[in-house]
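Morning. Coffee machine broken again, so started the prediction first thing and wrote up yesterday's gels while waiting. Chain of 339 residues, entered below exactly as on the submission form.
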Amino acid sequence: MKRFFAVFLSAILLLACLSLNACGEKHPEWMDWSETPAEDFQYTLSDDGEEVYIQKYLGTDERVVVPSHIDDLPVTSLKGVSEGENGLISEGVFEDNATVKEVVLPATLQSIGMSALGGCTALTTVYLPQESALEVIGDSAFWGCTSLKSLDLSSTSVWIIASRAFIECTALQEIRFPETLTEIRDRAFYQCTALVELQLPSSLKTMGTEAFSNCTSLQRVNIPVQLDLHALDTICFNEVPALEQITVDEGRESLDGYAFFALTGKTEIIIPASVKKISPDVFFIYGDNVSMKFLGDCPELIGGSTEFTGHPTFCYDPATKGWEDCPWKGDHTFKPIEE
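Came back before lunch.
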């Protein structure tokens, strides 16, 4: 009898879990939505005829579920109409669409092409499956999606976010990146004025000109271990007056770079014990509202400048080494970290 009840209870729990995601998360409603019919899309085949590229959404529905297969072939790209076709230079799949509010992308999708969802001012939500083949977000892919509030890319394999991909997405408050991301190009998030916090992945290596400039609500950002801090042209983080905290990830050994941050407000920069070298040129500091909190020994000063711009305050742990004889101590305000 006890065995019977144990089996019965296990069956009940299994049925309950089937209605939940991972026995705890509610099964997302969007996963049960029907795919949008193939006839609602203009599409073409890849050169080898093995993949489907969607060029244009032809419908008027508020909700679009991009099919995973058309004619038994996988849909791998929201490609848009490319240069030379029908006399057009470039036209995205949903470009300038004022109707679409929700888009579900299939697990088969590998790339979101140029301007694919650009100018979709009504778009509020983009859904991605738990296992997504997405690797590339192209130029201006989401430009001007002024109603899009969040985007979770953590389930994807995205390695590049191209130039202006999210430019002027003024409602975007949160974006989650995958641990495959290596490059964010020029102005990718320029003027995303609602963005509050960035958690950049450890895989990130390069960032383009003004990638997060004019993100006027941005408060917190981290510096990953591998990220190159040499801005190639113009400051990557410029016009970010709300920036409160910059945290350097533990394990990074050097803050060597140029023109990466322009700091005008009250900002705390937290530098872990792993950092042994620092260049003043990484941070362009205006005024005296910036504090740099060192958790380890006094790092070696490197780079073209011998002192920091502005008048930052340097906070250090008295239990660490090198601060009494720090060669740049006389030029700035130093004080021990208060317990």
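Residues 4-9, 11-15, 17-23 have pLDDT under 50 and may be disordered. Going to sketch it on the whiteboard this afternoon.
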